[in-house]
Amino acid sequence: VEDAVTHATEAGLTALPAVQVRGASVDGERIDPAAIEQELRRMRDDGDDAERSITRACMSNLIIYCDDQHSADAIPPELGTLVERHPARILLLVGEASSVAAGLAAEVSALCYLGTGGRQICAEHVRLAAAKGARRRLAPAARPLLIGDLPTALWWATPEPPPAGEIFQELSRMADQIVYDSVGWRDPARGVIAAADWSASSGTRRVSDLAWARLAPWRRLIAEAFDPARLPGGIEAIRDVEMEHGPHGLPQAWLLIGWLARCLGWRLTTGKMRPGVDIAWTFESQTGPVRVTVRRLPEGSPQIRDVKIRAVSPGLEMQATITLLDAARLALRIDGTMPSDNVVAMPPPSRALLLASQLSERSADPLFRDALATSRALARAVLT
Amino acid sequence: MVIFGGGGDLSRRKLIPALYNLALDGVLPAHFAVLGFGRTEVALEAFRASCRQNIDRYSRRPVQEPQWSDFEKKIHWMTGGIGDPASYVALREALEALEPTLGIPGNRVFYLSIPPSLIEPCVENLRAAGLVTEPDDASRFTRIIVEKPIGHDLESAKEINRGLARGLAESQIYRIDHYLGKETVQNIMVMRFANAIFEPLWNQKYVDHVQITVAEEEGVGTRAGYYEEAGALRDMVQNHILQVLCLTAMESPWSLTDDVIRDHKLEVLNCLRPILPSQVDDSVVRAQYGTGYHHGAEVPGYRREEKVKPESTTETYVALKCYIDNWRWAGVPFYIRTGKRLPKRASEIAVQFKEVPPILFNVDPEAPLEPNVLALRIQPDEGLSLRISAKLPGTKLRVHPVKMDFHYGSTFGDQSPEAYERLLLDVMAGDATLFMRRDAVEASWAWIMNILDGWQQKGDRWLPEYTAGSWGPLEADKLIQRDGRLWRTL
Q1: Half-sphere exposure of A51 (CA within 13 A, CB side)
Q2: More confident of the two residues A56 and B34
């Protein structure tokens, strides 16, 4: 929380200080939700004086779950950006906090920024940390802190794919939307299968993968490169796709392939993994076979780095290459028919911004759902 | 005012602090005394000292001087037995001695904070001792306040009412339900009938369903002895919740006089569609809390609570669906739930309106727009909120549910009196609006009896369990999900 305050201050935001909740000792056996609510109210009242007026803003409840203190400590610096885009009551739950000796500890703070007219706008932040062995107490402690009549989202900020054990089940039952990030999964193939199976059975709840959200500029450029108005017959002529990604970026690459396959009606026929070299799949399109190869680069950022798509048909031979130049730019080069070379800005989407954009969406994303279902098929083809 | 059971829990925690707050506000009659009546031998000074302690502990405002010194003089104590006729004679003599010195004209309120089984003997003894005036005596009045539970079932409620009626006229009887004294409960009528925008929508044409929730976060605590015999249906639904339901659903009264409003509330009870014993499984869910977490600490299940039988089938949770068969509410389900060891203490009435048509903004069947909900929070944080849909700022057209919130505390400050303050004052003023009339008590018991009979016929030896700290059992979720709806998150 101190980091969040610092970050908020550096970003030109103001912040009300974090406070321990009265009535809930640091290593206490009891966390009284009424005391937490009272403390949040008191914080609002204390900051609200004749010279400045505080507006409490809240569009949603956001539950963030982290396995341990290390990953939880990385969250608060992002919260200032998040609440400025999507004000929410944030409940940050820490599964095993080394700073907590026993039971649960609670801490509340407000994240504030200056809105139009100099208004100070604040979002509420409650951190509930569990000592080792007390993880199961988190969900019941969080439940009474949700604000009724507002949507509730769960950001599953762990490297374990959903559904991941009892705490995930309990927390996800409280949420209308579940957000996770497949970048960093330790066993991508099994993770994708598990997440896809769970997602298919999650009913009307919106499921989001931040890795999918990061693909938006890639998908836009691919769509532009093969726009039928610009390149008639280009889509049907695709024969070969090559993709490179950084470490731990495999699920994202599969999502992009899944999106292509679903949009273009490709049917998966075979999949083969050459450990340490690449993974290759063969699809059958309406006009012939399509070969897709994915290679993992040994180092660098985990996201997709390069995509080459070759299209060949009588009278048409072209290759679209999309390359990540740096964190902020993508280059699209087209060789062959109608060559071009363009660089487009790709504003680096922080996790907080990606998350904020997901929280504002209420409808399920059918493209993601389909891409995830195809990813599952890709994963199964490799495993079998 | 004479409080039978004057040394008891209710007197210490609620009644004496309520009277003190009324005194602070300057609304107690100038000529007033409160006399505690109980078995314990207590010196007057000791009783007054304990009252002071209890006010400091339980009152919304602490003891203040010089008001306390004035109030203290109005407190008296008498030792006596509820079943002992001689004690009542002594009481009459004490009152007759006290009243002239304080200028009290003989108006008497007897608060019967005693077990139901003692009500009838108490009333008989009062009458026999000449402590009950005639109802049409214009010079002075006698009023009796009786606490819930009024009976354990319909027959015992009738028995209590018959006992009361033998010694008193109905106009002298005030059956108290402290729930009705809460500001927000009183605000139901104000909200409905003092605003033009709600009442036109308050019917089956626009309302999809109504949810009434009374959630308690505490377990059975020290009340196991009573609760084992009562359970959630008797403890909460039969009285508090049905009263709230009546205020929510009643037709517009043509006057604010007590009997007009009570007539209208009775009409709702008479229109409640009976849940026949054979239908209980389809419309009612009962359950007990199991082990779980409360405020982050592990708590035992109900059957492992102190003084609870290990094989107990007393319900600590009830959820039910009912209908009011009249023109206004035809086909509109009312979902009721109440329970102990739920995630938080919260009581509310939520009126959910019908969905907007599936055109323009409500076109995604997988993510329909959240319907409008008007929620009246009874406790804590009294107020009301209205959920509406709004456009999210930005270049895209996205619709997001937002909540317009009114908090009593934020608007009016912390001025709300305790329920007992209002109710005691009403008794002194002779306003019975917020008290239950005999016919309403018996009508609500008659409706409840079908459910109790259904349970008895089934003879269950095991009830579904819900985890302490959760919002209830899965069976309750299914009850509402069968209709394509969900319980609200409070």
Answers
A1: 2
A2: B34
Contact flag B375-A149 (C-beta cutoff 8 Å): yes
Is B407 labeled as catalytic in the residue annotation? Answer: no
Q: Is A140–B399 a contact, with Cβ atoms under 8 angstroms apart?
A: no
Q: What is the ipTM of this complex?
A: 0.80
* A·B CB contacts under 8 A: 88
Residue A264, beta-bridge partner list: none
The CA-based angle B170-B175-B177, given to 5 degrees, is 155
The pTM score is: 0.86
CA–CA separation, A92 vs A107, rounded Å?
10
Q: How many CB atoms lie within 10 A of CB B371?
A: 18
The model's pLDDT over A318-332, given as tens digits with 9 standing for 90+, comes to 999 999 988 888 899
Strand partners, A206: A177
Cα A325 to Cα A305, A321, A330, A332, A345, distances in angstroms:
8, 12, 6, 10, 10
What tens digit of pLDDT does each residue of B421-453 get? 999 999 999 999 999 999 999 999 999 999 999
**What average pLDDT does this structure show over B463-487?**
95
Q: Which residue of A has its CA nearest to B392?
A: A360
> Is B469 an 8 Å CB contact of chain A?
yes
Token look-up 């699920």 returns A251
Closest CA to B207 of B216, B199, B215: B199
> pLDDT tens, B376-411?
998 887 888 999 999 988 888 889 999 898 888 777
Residue type, A198: W
Q: Which one of B293, B373, B396 would you mutate to disrupt binding with A, by most A Cβ within 10 Å of its Cβ?
A: B293
